[in-house]
Amino acid sequence: MGVLTNLAKLTTMGFDNLATMNVGAQLAQAQATMDGLIAQNQLATQAAGPEFVSATATVTQLASTGVMVNDGVQVALGLLVLLPAGVPVPVTTTTVVPMALLPQVQPGATIGVRVDPAAPSRVLLDLR
User: Fold this and answer.
1) CA atoms within 13 A on the CB side of 11
2) 4-30 pLDDT tens trace
3) Tell me: the pLDDT tens digits for 50-68?
């Protein structure tokens, strides 16, 4: 008897959740996350090009976006990038950082980056 009662309750709860679920919004959020990851991957591919140069950056802000990708967490980083010409440029970027490397991107840390001097907002972390 208890199994059938629990099954009935679970079925009712499932139908209630289905009625209130906004599938369109969930799909839109998933698509936006995927678009961001694809853009980041394209940027990583381009970072090997001649327009990107090595630089250093100081982490000024760190915030989780709530998205997990494999063994990493997507974070929003505030960086102060020191361009090769010696000009500091504030940059905000969203990237996936492996959990094991999160201590390297804490506020105040200095990290290596690859940056496009013509468009400093195009930055890629060089974590090891």
Assistant:
1) 6
2) 788 888 888 888 888 888 888 888 888
3) 778 889 999 999 998 888 8
CA atoms within 13 A on the CB side of 64: 9
Q: For residue 53, what are its two tokens?
A: 């140069």
Distances (CA, A) of 64 to 55, 68, 84: 24, 9, 29
Amino acid at 6: N
Q: Which residues pair with 96 in a beta bridge?
A: 74
Beta bridge partners of 48: none
Q: Where do the structural domains in the chain lie, given as residue ranges?
A: 2-126
Q: CA–CA separation, 77 vs 106, rounded Å?
A: 9
Token pair of 105, please? 């991107």
What Rg, from alpha-carbon coordinates, does the chain have? Answer: 21
Helices (H) and strands (E) in the chain, counts: 2, 5
Q: What is the pTM of this model?
A: 0.64
